[in-house]
Amino acid sequence: MTTTGLALASNACIYAAMVTLTLAMISFAVSFAAGRRRVAVAVAQEVPVAAGGTALLERMPTNDDSSTGRRSGNIAMSLTWLSFGLLLIGVVLRGIWAGRVPWGNMYEFSISSALGILAVFLFLSTRHDLRWLGLFITIPTLLTLGLAVTVLYTEAAQLVPALKSYWLIIHVSAAIICAGAFTLAAATAALSIVRSRAERRPGEVTGMMAKVPDAQRLQTLTYRTVAFSFPLWTFAVVAGAIWAENAWGRYWGWDPKETWAFITWVVFAAYLHARSTAGWRGDRAAWIAIIGWVSFLVNYFGVNIFVNSLHSYAGVG
Amino acid sequence: MTTSSVDAREQVPLPPMGAVGFARWSWRQLTSMRTALILLFLLAIASIPGSVLPQRGNDPIAVRNWIEDAPTMGPILDRLGFFEVYSSPWFSAVYLLLFISLVGCVIPRAAQHWRAMLALPPAPPRNLSRLAGTIEQTSGLDPQQVIDSAASVLRKQRWRVRVEEPAEAGSASGSSWVAAEKGYLRETGNLVFHLSLVLLLVAVAVGGLFGWKGNVIVREGRGFANTLTQYDAWGGGAFVNPATLPDFSFTLTDFRVDFERSGAQRGAPSFFEADVTYRTNVSAAEQTDVIEVNHPLEISGAKIFLVGHGYAPKFVVRDAAGKVVFDDEVPFLPQDGNFTSTGVVKAPDGTPQLGFRGLFLPTSALDDVRGPHSVFPAPDDPSVFLSAWQGDLGLDAGAPQSVYRLDTVAMTQLGLEALRPGDIWVLPNGSGSVTMTGFTRWASFQIARDPGKEFALVSAILAITGLMCSLFMRRRRVWVRATQAANGITVVQVAGLARKSTLDDLQSPSLEAELRDLANALRGPEIASSTVKEPK
Fold first, then answer.
1. How far apart are CA B310 and CA B378, in angstroms?
2. Which of B150, B284, B341, B499 has the most CB atoms within 10 Å of its CB?
3. What is the dihedral of CA B388, B391, B396, B398, to 10 degrees?
């Protein structure tokens, strides 16, 4: 294939992924809205399950109250997988077109991060029933992709010399996975806040919030996601520091990108501490997780676009 | 950190206290988890201004411009340390308090953990079947064998095991049991993580006290020897003696750079590299190397990094009598991505003295809005725009002057002219002439030594390892009790408890699996015939 052919194919895959993901989002929304009144089913059966069965005590509200909801939930999951596949091909083709890892500018970071979000979500969905979460994952992913193809799009070019290092692969891949995990954590944290508000109201939880797991469960999911991504983020920052030492002669220099990576780290550290502080475990901890995600976004969009930083590789404008 | 029970105790109205009581109360407050949480928030918030405002350590020129542009706010913010946030008293106060809180929390916990690791696993609760997930089964082995094999299986899986034999053999009530505990690594990891943060701080301090860093611009063909006077800027820690820097030297033999000619990143450098010859000390043999971004040269513990490059136009200045008063290449500093560069030429030997402000344009363009500027970083169409000044350069006053600034207070402007390589400009009023004879390139190097960096890396690796242990390990206990029922059949109970600690997990699927595996291992040979639930 010619390079133009590769470029066209990559872009076509990205657009196709966006279309599929939009359909997935609609299906998730339908599944979420269908059968608003949930029949109280005792789901938390304490059945001994087969070895490795983490499904035990998943106290998930199954969608079995409405077949429409279940069907569209399943369709949405399949569409998300399809979208993930298309996006993966798009990112790989982009890399082949550019002749390097596809992480040279903000367009490429963004499509890779979208891939990261879907990867983390789909990986977890193989272990838990996460159809209820799909809507809240497809929306940020679509926004990321939308920004990527409209505002951030750039033609593939050679890497600037500062990025020519194998640390690019190590440092950026960790950051991309963290992008996915932080987004997931923020989604479950936000849901847990809304859900716990609904739980505090007298009577049984009805409406949309009946479709998501109880607040306790959502908080646990948030915690697990952060517990997974916090060491990885620490690693990303340390890898960045090693690279910085090799490229700029100091491992830490309070460059705005470094500063915001540090802020993100500190906020998620605060989240982990809040989880073991009386009176902070619930909604407050959830808010901290959301703040952590916001500071990650500030680091990604804010510092790349608005601040003059050593990390200004956006290739925008 | 101090657990929530302490927080609860603090809610109780306190009796009047003396100085010691107050100190103790303050200490407890400082080392409480809630304080740690607040300090973490403060640390995050205190870091923000440094990412928005220019910082002296990174860009002193931007700081100066910022203060000049905001005559009221600028000096106030400056006095409050907003241009040196990360060394300001308030930022230091936050992180030092955080570290004190951390140490005050970790040390008692370490002692507690040490005792817990030495202690034996606790005896099983009287009624194991009350614990969730307890497995009860019969076994073809006798109680003693069950206990022995349980102990050996658990030991093989690296549990801490405590075995209790029956009080009196043959007694009806005599049941023997095994208690085991695992997952101490969780707390160990937690402690290691926090302590390695302290180590990291020490490493940073070591780097700050014993390290040094300097910047120098070297023109093509010129050399550099590692002494203080050769640096354009140099900073060292309190324990560095600038007189005893390692005496290496190098010469920039060639500097190569190329730029993207097309595409979105047109004008971005596609590569730049510096050929150098160097000596590790005065008497050493000459060696060669290529310094690139991401590929520094390391000599005697110091690293030489290539951090920037630019152009140095070459001028010959003659005074009114035609005598050459200046003949050199002058490094010009790039102002934008297309290397529109500014610089200054000072010729103090003429009478009156001559000075020039210049603009070097590698690919020249001129328009009404932007004036003379460069449209591409490569020297496709180089030219220089000069403004000539005559008078007193102010060098004799003795005050140090920047080589990139021309003080025109005591000077009068002679005129403006654009020159291409080879052009000569005869100055008005017979004041002399200036020739641009050509240009060369320069590279800027950062030369740094940080003796704390390996230490910092080790701390960081320890921190990550500790962190993973503390997040992914779980403390759990297992008990096995074997009893001989009246009919001689052995009844085995396998039970476990995962420390819920602070964390949440509703249940522990992994512990369930462990209990199941253990129970299966204790069934004994005649499992098929003895699956009877209720021994008669």
1. 10
2. B150
3. -70
Please give the DSSP secondary-structure letter assigned to residue B390: E
pLDDT in single tens digits along all 536 residues of chain B: 444 444 444 455 555 667 788 888 888 777 788 889 999 999 999 999 998 898 888 777 788 888 888 889 999 999 999 999 998 999 999 999 999 999 998 999 999 999 988 888 888 888 888 887 788 888 888 888 888 889 999 999 888 999 887 655 554 455 788 999 988 888 999 999 999 999 999 999 999 899 998 989 999 999 999 998 899 888 888 899 888 889 899 999 999 988 888 776 677 777 888 999 999 988 889 999 999 888 899 998 899 999 889 999 999 999 888 889 999 999 999 888 889 999 999 988 877 889 999 999 999 988 888 888 899 999 999 999 999 999 888 877 766 777 888 888 888 888 899 999 999 999 988 888 999 999 999 999 999 999 999 999 999 999 999 999 988 888 888 999 888 877 778 888 898 888 654 344 434 567 788 888 888 888 876 544 444 444 33
Give dist(CA A303, CA A283) in Å, integer: 29
How many Cβ atoms sit within 10 Å of the Cβ of residue B518? 23
- B273-B275-B280 Cα angle (round to 5): 125
Scanning B167-214, the segments in alpha helix (DSSP H) are 185-210
Nearest alpha carbon to residue A115 among A176, A67, A164: A176
Test A249 with B268 for CB contact under 8 angstroms: no
Residue B455, token pair as written in the block: 């230490």
What pTM does this model have? 0.81
Q: CB distance from B43 to chain A under 8 Å?
A: yes
Write the single-letter amino acid at B21: G
For B387, how many CA atoms within 13 A lie in the half-sphere containing its CB? 11
The nearest alpha carbon in chain A to B193 belongs to A231
Contact (CB<8Å) B296/A53: no
Neighboring chain B residues of A160 at a CB cutoff of 8 Å: 265, 268-270
Q: How far apart are CA B468 and CA B193, in angstroms?
A: 9
d(CA B31, CA B3): 10
Element (H, E) at A120: helix A106-125
E strand residue ranges, A128-278: none
Q: Where are the beta strands (DSSP E) in B319-449?
A: 324-329, 333-334, 341-347, 353-361, 364-367, 371-374, 383-391, 411-419, 424-426, 433-449
Q: Do A270 and B37 touch (CB under 8 A)?
A: yes
One-letter amino acid of A240: G
Inform me whether the C-beta atom of residue B507 falls under 8 Å from chain A C-beta atoms.
Answer: yes
Taking alpha carbons only, the member of B327, B423, B428 closest to residue B387 is B428
Cis peptide preceding B352, ω within 30 of 0: yes
How near does any CA of chain A get to the CA of B467, in Å?
Answer: 6
Identify which of B165, B161, B140, B134 has the alpha carbon closest to the alpha carbon of residue B150. Answer: B161
ipTM value for the complex: 0.80
- In contact, B160 and B182? CB cutoff 8 Å: yes
> Looking at chain B, how many residues does it have?
536
Residue-wise DSSP of B395-418: -TT-----TT----TTEEEEEEEE
Residue with token string 């302290």: B198
Using the Cβ of B28 and the Cβ atoms of chain A, whether some distance falls under 8 Å is answered with: no
Search chain B and give the residue with CA nearest A252: B204
